[in-house]
Amino acid sequence: MRAAVEVDRLTKIFGSFTAVDGISFRVAPGTIFGFLGANGAGKSTTIRMLCGLLRPTSGLARVVGFDVCKEASRIKQVIGYMSQKFSLYPDLTVAENLEFFGKVYGLDDKKLAASLNRLSRIIGLEGWAKTLTSELPVGWRQRLALSCALLHDPEIIFLDEPTGGVDPLARRQFWDLIYEQAEQGRTVFVTTHYLDEAEYCHELRIIHDGRIIAAGSPREIKKKYFPENLLELSCRKPLEIYEWLKKLPQVRQVSLFGLRLHLLVEPGEVASLRQKLDRFGPGDFDLRPIVPGLEDVFIRRLEEETGARGK
Description:
- The protein is α/β, with parallel strands linked by helices.
- The protein has eleven helices and 14 strands.
- The chain is elongated.
- The model has no long low-confidence stretch (mean pLDDT 89).
């Protein structure tokens, strides 16, 4: 089966700065494929190259079978793109924005009407047609932006930080819409810096400094990069205990998670650690095994990368 997206050693350099550093991956059709990373990690630059908006410095990439360098105009006809920055016209109404983007995509009146009828049932913009876009709540603006990206019924949609600045309930509702698109067979390529959103993806890549540092499904990533048992320590002096734990030979890694600490301990050393905690005297504490989350993986991989590259 033809891949929706194929990337091989894709690189983008701006002057002396490498924004995307030789990344490779493949996206299967009908997949919700996520890029997880902090701001400046290379997520948006990658999407802009895949959408034909930015020419790669080197490497290969195909979207729906089209080469991003040689067939960028054809790519733009078969994809939907929702940019990180709100790209609709705030001084137009909802209906006017939809009509404008429909014309941009070359839809005649009949096809536009059919698309609007289809999307109104999916996105739920009924009742907002005459509302100025600038007056829409943020969550509904995102729905409108998604509607505009779907007007021409694209094979794949690229969503760049689609829920930035949106409240948690609206984010969850937006992800329901993303799932509906995937269930219809459409491929969704989404970037996010929200760890909870990354859990919704079928396939995930964690990107840092333009390089992919973890790959697989969320479950596979947690299993692959965190095979050991993870412990959580709750106590009254987490900052003080944190510095002390870092010096213990049986503690392989320690990270702060709010008022709790997550520890990687050498096999067979949990009982010894408990004894040392008792002697050190942090007061009441609770030490228990937990299942690692993506945040644990994310922090661990960043620490490993930082250590390996001497940053």
